[in-house]
Amino acid sequence: MGMFVSAASIAAASDILVWPPPSQASFSGSPVSLSKDFAIRTRFASDTEAATSDVELAHSRLKDAVKRYTALTVSLSPVASRQQSGAIVQMMDVEILDKSPHVGLSTRYDYNISIGAGQNASVKVSAASIYGAMYAMESFIQMLDSNGDVRHSEVVIRDAPKHQWRALMIDPGRRFFPMPLVRNLLDTMAANKLNVLHLHASDHCRFSVESKVFPNLTGSLSGLHAGFYTQQDIKDMISYAEKRGIRVVPEFDVPGHARGMRPLKSEGLQYCTDEADQSQLFGDPENKTLNVLKRLMKEMSSLFPDEVFNIGCDETSAKGKCTVKSTFDLERQLLSYIANDLGKKPAGWEEVLFDASAATPNTIVDAWSQHNPAQITKTGRYAIESSEKHFYFTAPGKGGPRGWHQCWYDIDSGVPAGQKRLLLGGEISMWSDQYCYIEQCGSATGQPPPPGHALFDPKLDDAFGRSIGGMIWPRGYVAAAAFWNYDSSIDPKSPEFTKAVWRFNDQLASRGSWVCPSKCACDTTSACGKPYVKPATEAIVV
Q: How far, in Å, CA of 406 to CA of 387, rounded?
């Protein structure tokens, strides 16, 4: 067996075979073919008591994963072309410790893989959960070469994430992200071992989830502004995500960024000003705004089973009727309602702690601009690192290492050892500001249209999806690897690292992921210098 090496040693070698680079791995021996009868077999390690419904769901998700990865194996290594002489891998044998099908903050994703030499070799996998087993299947798929053979006949991998929150945030509160795009992103996230989809579901342009309590919220979304998720869409999205070990964490941004909630003014919702831009909610003394928001959040909470519920609380200011105190009161009452009445862990952006100071002790705080996780964890609160310098993908990146090197960042930076347990992990933010047909859908006046405004029209959903994919990947792979197992000795600009990113990118493109093609650059409107759509001949009419 080859020498057991760390992620840094793997990255320094001639090949990085698995993405993100595993915590520890050993690769040796010549390539080995798959049997024409190659199969994946799963079993639980014990008969530990578990609810029948949980066991059935766990088996169902395992069956779905086996079917999915078996199909990928066939596509990458067609049965008809597999050699049947010499060493052959017959079976992937997967043993799973935990029967729970639930995904949450306590879910374990660690897994081990071993491939032994011999005439009839098998792949042995042990995994802490069904989702760790899925990660093992993903890693195995990545070890297949261009001929569909396993690259080495002797392999040992021991792998586990350093952080339990490895997220991608998307912003359908501005430009709507249609369901085919969401599913494509979830597939690519799973390949990168990202496990949280942060759904920023409301903002200046729309409230993007159907409400049956307040149907007028989405009733006016038509034409250029069309696009929202039905409640069935949300169920389907969550199901699709959880089958891949991914949680869907909703965010409904209040009291700022609330222009998309203006249809609720008829229900009693109040804004700070009577101006046309109305984007910040007023916490009125009669609690009319609060009571409407409680009814809305109760309904939305029932649609999303995740334990975390985010209400944003970013970028508010004292203006019009709104004072610092009125904003504090509204945010604090909502955060307490989420925790005490809805039974969720409340979350918000850094302003909830450092501006309005409304964060309750159990509020998860997302650092993104002026503050860092260490400033949050020292208060005893859980933190997420979303540094705009490293993980905001609003603007396009340069092609290759020049565009992704800043994503190779230690999110633990500055957090004392005794507080590291409070740092949940890191998050990529894919805001859609640059696709608004006018700046912030009209809440910011006097500005030219953003560069991607031509793709706001829902008639161009396919082009928009490919644009978003090209904006996120491949630099998102590097962020995902940093969340998984950052190592300061790895150089993200090295030839070995670069080669691995391009190879992984090509493989995911062949699997159907919408990505920026290898060895070029993408922006909101073009890939490798070629526009997603022909220049518009007519101006967008609102």
A: 11
